[in-house]
Amino acid sequence: IVADEYREPLQEAREAISEKCELMKAKEKPINVTTASKKLRSELSLSSQASTFSVCFACETCTTVCPVVASYENPQEALGMLPHQIMNACALGVRDLAFGSNMLWDCVTCYQCQEQCPQGVAVTDVLYELKNLAIKSVKLTLATK
Q: For the whole model, what pTM was predicted?
């Protein structure tokens, strides 16, 4: 695939998903976790690898070893959420935060986070499953229009 032919559809997909993620737009507003989606947790629990997010205790090892995070001077600003924060968003069931993060889409699937996690969280597999769920969500939205 020629790079230009790859970038455009990828950018369109990212924008479509970001449009659905209201919480990422309102960064200064508090998040009501009591209304968070149990659906996200149950969807991730269907995969034996992706269900490991629930044992994350936010030690930040995944974030520390991530080459994508290391490539930015200010990763929080550039990526929105960092790997350990995405795991927390999954545990809370906050779809918008997980789906709208640039980190989700910039992950290079090197598996460093997964190999280094002291809890055995399959971080890369969780991110991969989140991508699939985000794309599925956008497809359903587009199909109903």
A: 0.78
| Helix or strand holding residue 96 (H, E) | helix 95-100
- Does residue 58 come out as left (phi exceeding 0), alpha (psi in the -120 to 50 range) or beta? left
7: CB partners within 8 A, 6+ apart: none
41-to-54, 77, 93, 103, 144 alpha-carbon distances in Å: 9, 26, 6, 19, 24
Q: Tokens at residue 10, please?
A: 């990828």
Mind listing the pLDDT tens digit for each residue in 51-80?
Answer: 888 899 999 999 999 999 999 999 999 998
Q: Are 90 and 41 in contact (CB under 8 A)?
A: yes
Q: Are 131 and 104 in contact (CB under 8 A)?
A: yes
Closest by CA position to 34, among listed 97, 95, 98, 92:
92
Give the tens place of pLDDT for each residue, 12-38.
Answer: 777 767 666 655 555 666 666 665 667
Cβ 93 vs Cβ 37: under 8 Å: yes
How many domains does the chain divide into?
1
